[in-house]
Amino acid sequence: MKKLSLEMLRLSTNEILERSQMKKITGGYGGTCGYKSPSGQVWCGMTYSQANQAYNTGGGNWCCDSCASNGGSASYC
Question: Of 2, 6, 15, 19, which is least packed with CB atoms within 10 Å of its CB?
Fold first, then answer.
C-alpha cells in the first residue's frame, strides 16, 4: 500500500481541518460525552471523567449519551 503525501494533494489551508475540528469529527478524546465551557467552546467525544473534570474546573455544561437518554442534552455535539 502506497503512503499518501499531503504535498501531493496540493490542498490550500482553507481545505484542511484544524486539529480541534478533527477531534470533533472523530471523537478524538475517546468517549461519548460532551462539554461546553461558559465561553461557548465545545469539546465532544470525551469520557465521563474528562467531561466531569472539565465541568468541576470551569463550570459550563456537560452531558453523555447516558444522560441524554434520560432527558439531558448535549445538542452542541
Answer: 2
C-alpha cell at 62: 456537560
DSSP state letters, 5-55: PHHHHT--GGGS--HHHHHHHHTTTSSSEEEE-TTS-EEEEE-HHHHHHHH
Tell me, yes or no, if the pTM score tops 0.85: no
pLDDT digits (tens, 9 = 90+) for 8-56: 777 777 777 676 666 555 544 556 888 999 999 998 888 888 888 999 9
